[in-house]
UniProtKB/TrEMBL annotation:
Record protein name field: Type III pantothenate kinase
Function: Catalyzes the phosphorylation of pantothenate (Pan), the first step in CoA biosynthesis.
Catalytic EC class: transferase
GO CC terms of this entry: cytoplasm
Chemical reaction(s) catalysed: (R)-pantothenate + ATP = (R)-4'-phosphopantothenate + ADP + H(+)
Gene: coaX
GO BP term, example: coenzyme A biosynthetic process
GO molecular function: ATP binding; metal ion binding; pantothenate kinase activity
Positions with a binding annotation for substrate: 103, 107-110, 187
Length: 264
């Protein structure tokens, strides 16, 4: 991490905001140092205005300055538009992320997480983001995007079965306490089994294939379901854990690196 001689200057506080597909993800920084992070539901325009005039909305910790500068990245354009009235906002774009070979529709959340992981742990790197969508995104030793894949995440798979079928119950990942039996004897366990074991097998297959291409690569997992999936991977494929790094803040590590570059 690069030194910052003015680390404790109150003016160096800033807030990272990642607008995800289902929630807002915040990280409070003092210069380069992460102070706190939290998630909230989407904020209404009135609550965004409240944040701008020194009154913190519900589910927010007290903020050290107001209005605090916000560095924003988003994958939801309608939500992005709501934040444009905030007085100290900087919206990041793909062009600001120094990865080579990116394509125009690459999600900025994937690009930031990949850049943050690569800068923190080294390239080549594979990032698995277990959020609303489950994504795989990799870069080689020369910081070139290799590519990746996208599929419905754990919660989205449960939701699609519950909402698009006539008799299957609506389940969610928060109900899972332990791995279900693979061959289940009730409907809820059968859904858990089908989704979880297939998802774990798919993750293992992508990791195995990546390591054939880049045997010395690190692999990082992030996102809301990352801790749960890491626990299950440990139980089923313990050898994978020797390469796997669990880190919830990869997007903010990438965001921080771009903020640092802009200050130099």
């Amino acid at each position: 991490m690069k030194p910052n001689n003015h680390q404790h200057n109150p003016d160096n506080y800033w807030l990272g905001l990642m607008i995800g597909n289902s929630r807002l993800h915040f990280a409070l920084f003092l210069g380069e140092m992460l102070q706190a992070n939290w998630d909230t539901e989407y904020l209404s325009p009135s609550l965004i205005q409240q944040l701008a005039i020194a009154n913190t909305p519900p589910d927010f910790p007290p903020l050290p300055i107001s209005p605090i500068p916000i560095i924003l990245a988003s994958v939801v354009p309608t939500q992005t538009a709501l934040w444009q009235t905030y007085p100290k906002i900087q919206t990041l774009t793909l062009e600001q992320i120094p990865l080579a070979g990116m394509y125009p529709t690459l999600g900025i959340d994937r690009a930031l997480a990949l850049w943050g992981a690569g800068i923190t742990y080294g390239f080549p790197i594979l990032v698995i983001d277990a959020g609303t969508a489950l994504t795989f995104t990799g870069a080689d030793a020369n910081q070139n995007l290799v590519g990746g894949a996208i599929l419905p995440g754990l919660g989205l798979q449960f939701a699609s079965l519950g909402q698009k079928t006539g008799q299957l119950p609506l389940l969610n990942s928060r109900e899972i306490i332990e791995l279900p039996p693979r061959f289940a004897l009730n409907t809820s366990d059968a859904i858990h089994s089908g989704v979880i074991y297939t998802l774990l097998a798919g993750i293992k297959d992508f990791i195995d294939n990546w390591l054939l291409l880049f045997p010395e690569s690190k692999i990082a997992i992030t996102g809301g379901d990352s801790k749960l999936l890491t626990t299950y991977l440990q139980n089923n494929f313990p050898a994978i854990m020797e390469k796997l790094i669990l880190e919830r803040n990869l997007i903010f590590w990438g965001m921080r690196e771009i903020v640092i570059v802009n200050q130099e």
